Structure formats: structure tokens, C-alpha cells
């Protein structure tokens, strides 16, 4: 059997499955023996119990899935008022019994092509966006927040073929944290570029992105770097995130071990350039998986800074639940190693209802129209899948 | 032992990490102070944080109780908290510095640091000290090289020190040296 048949086989089997970007290609996880739906009550026990085994024997000795935004707020004691929501679960993890390596080029032809609805509605128009934007600017002036990210949502009622979407997306955009989940009543497709936690033995890294530049024909990587370096606004935004992530890592790392491994580099994607840093540290001896997750999540670069007071401000202004958006997807191995991303650049399809969420940052010198448009650019790459 | 009072900031643990280079450090939230730890501490540090000093009456109370009894160090909001308790006025600035790197200069005559020495530092502040400011035994010892905004205070009699900038930021060069010097003062 060739490697390419796995995708056909998994679709025909109608079993739930997950695909996650690996170093060389993708990993396909399936044959789930357990499915755990997270609640505010069971999440702590779940995280503590996964890594109790200490040893990892098989490459399926792990739980893979996602934490939504709301449950991560609750975990660090930030309460969210009642919001409109899809009633989508706050988090789901699976225990796979089968793991298959897939190549970087995923080939899949839908058996029965589905007709998609390609018309999206945005939940905040430019006026209401500007309104929230100006409120937050005042909060920046009074020092309650230094940077805050407003989320806008593009929504659409439609069926989708998740695997087809994911394969098309990864053909043009191989994001290092791309993943998809296909279960009976929902699917998630994401080309997340951002790693939040990579933990191996006692070493942990995080790789925040702050700074985005739309690609043009005249630009290349070197020019993009010099743009970011000269652009004071992007530089300040990035600096803030680097210091915040250093601080989050310092909660769980040994004194003096937190270091910036790569300072302010440029990464290239299909439509965008990103300004990226890599920060790492050595974990303290008695740190649990739960301690690490609480220190790092929700990922700061998609929230703003300082985290707690900014989350409180966001949660009073955002009328709709973020669901998976700015939550984290990844896995915890039985030996405590883990890898988690930040869920951005993603489509959530739940009961034939699609939702694409995007956010961009308000700092003291940002402009409402520009940030609103930046959100649209980010969403467009995903809305194009519905064509 | 150094006791750090956290004002729910996302930079506090950089401060903890930095001070851990020199001594044992305990860090608690400003509304969850452990009195026994506070009593044992040789040095008390007020962390950076959102908002303004008037939002943290608990920290002001601790300052007034400990002034002259223990070494006190304030960073950013913590710096403003000390000034506020010394009847300084904390106001919004026209230009706001968040994630900003600037040059500052030692301007004080009685500073632990060499006069006219320059430092490159990271800044995260919306508010600043409105001058003139005068309090017994306090001296403004560092200023922004361009705007002349107050960037550090020293009171070498009561052993009270404060920085408006962030010595723990990666944007600050030689931050550890600054901390080492005031810890050994």
C-alpha cells in the first residue's frame, strides 16, 4: 500500500482522525480509544493524570487535542461573562491507537465534491470595530493595558470537506504548526504558524510571532527584516511580547536559564512575512504539566499585555465566545513531554456552521482602519478555500 | 531573602528571575501578602503592573510600614508607587512608551552610579512623575536623555530605590549590574 492511500482509507472508514505537522511531513492519528470532553471541573485532573505514567513506550502514548480560549481563562482564574456561543465543547482530547507518517505533499481528491457557501458575514463592522478600538486606546493611555488584540469573526452556514480544505491549504502554505481534526459533528482546519510550548525532558521553548507584513512582488526576506527593524510600531509590539514570554517561562524555569535563542527573525509564508523570536529555558525540578500550561496559556502574543488585565478588558468587550480561537492544540506524552501551538489561522466547522476568527493588535500608535483591514487579510487566505 | 509583591504584571517573573541571581526570592500577589514572609525579607520589591499607584492601597500601606526598616525597591509601577507615597504626582504623559528602548543618563550628585554615565534601557509606561518633586532624602538620579523624564530615584539614608524603566527587560543592557549595585548598597 502506498502512503497516499492512507488519506483515502481514512475518509472511507469515516473514523475520526487528526493530522498534525511533523518535522518531515505530517502525522496522522486515528483509532481513538478514548475521547475526553473537557470541562472546568475535569481539566486539572486530566492534565495531571496524562503524564503520571512517566514512561513513554509507544509513539501513541499520548493525548492529542485542544484547549479552547474560555477553559484556559478559567484555569488561570479569569472569569468570562456570559457570551453568545455555538455551545461548542471547551476542549477535547483523544487517545490514539494508530499513528501514521504522511509526506509533506498531501494528495486527496474528494469522492463526492461538496458545494460550499462562499458568502461570509463579519460579526463586527468597521464602525463597531473602531468603537472598541478607541475604548482600548484610552485604556492604553491610562496604563491598564500596553497592547490588546481585538477578535473579529467571519461566519458562514455551510458544509465543508475538511480534508480537502486542509490538503489545499497545505499545498500553498506549509505552516509549522498546521493541524486538522475531523470528528463526527465538527472539524478544525488550521495553518497556525505559532508554537507556544515545545517541551522535551527538562527543556522548554516558545516561539512568539508579533509583526505581520503582507507579501508583495517587491519584497523578499531581507527587505522584510529591514522593514520590521525600521518600523517602530512593529518593533515595540514585538519587544513587549518577547518580555512577556520570557516572564511566562520564568515562572517554571530555573533561575538564570531563560534565554532568547533567536532574536527577531523573519519567517516567510504564502501571503505574509512574520516577525518571530525563539525563547527557551530549563525547567525547575518540581514543575508539573499543569504548572507549565497555566504559566504559558492562553498564549500572550494573541491576547496582549499584561495578560490578566488585558484578558479582563477583552472579556468585557467581546460579545461572542472565541471558542477554539487563541486556545491551543497539541499533545501531552505519557512521559510529560509536550507540544502545543496557538490556534490561529483556523476554520472551525461545527454542525455545518463555519467560523474564521482573526485578531490584530491595538498599541498606542495603531490605526483602526489599518488593523481592521489586517484582520481581513488574515481571514481571506482561509475564506478563499470556500471558492 | 527578597520578597517581591506582584501587581499582576506580565513582566513580574522576569524581575523574579533577575533577583534570583542574587538571593532567595518569594513572590506573592499584592492582594495575597504572606505576612511572615514579608517580616523575614531583607528586601521588598514592588513589581511593575497595569494601572496607577492609587489602584494599589495595600502596597502603599506596606511601603509606609516598612520605610526605613527594610530596603525597598520599586520598578515601573513600583517606582511610581514609592513616589506617590512620598506625595509625588503621577500623571499621564503625552508620548507613551511601551516596548521602547531609550538612552538614560545619571544626573544625580549623590547616586550610587557614576554621574553622566549612560544606560540603554527598556521602557513600558503610560504614566510619569510630574515635577517639581521633593521629598526628604530622595534624589532623582537618572533621567531620559531626550525628554528628561525622571527614570530613577535613590534614598541612600532609608535605602529606597526605584526605576521607571525595566532593568529586567531584554531591552536593558547591563540590567543585572544595576540590580547588583542597589542590592549591595
Number of helices of chain A: 10
The outline of chain B comes out as: globular
CA-atom Rg of chain B in angstroms: 15 Å
Low-pLDDT segments of chain B? none
Terminal CA distance of chain B: 15 Å
SSE ordering of chain B: EHEHEHEHEEEEEH
Oligomeric category: heterodimer
> Could you describe the largest sheet of chain B, including whether it forms a barrel?
9 strands, mixed
Please give the alpha-carbon distance between the first and last residues of chain A.
Answer: 33 Å
Query: What is the CA-atom radius of gyration of chain A, in angstroms?
Result: 20 Å
Which band does the percent of strand residues of chain A land in? 25-35%
Give the structural class of chain A: alpha+beta
Instruction: Tell me what portion of residues of chain B adopts beta-strand conformation.
Output: 35-45%
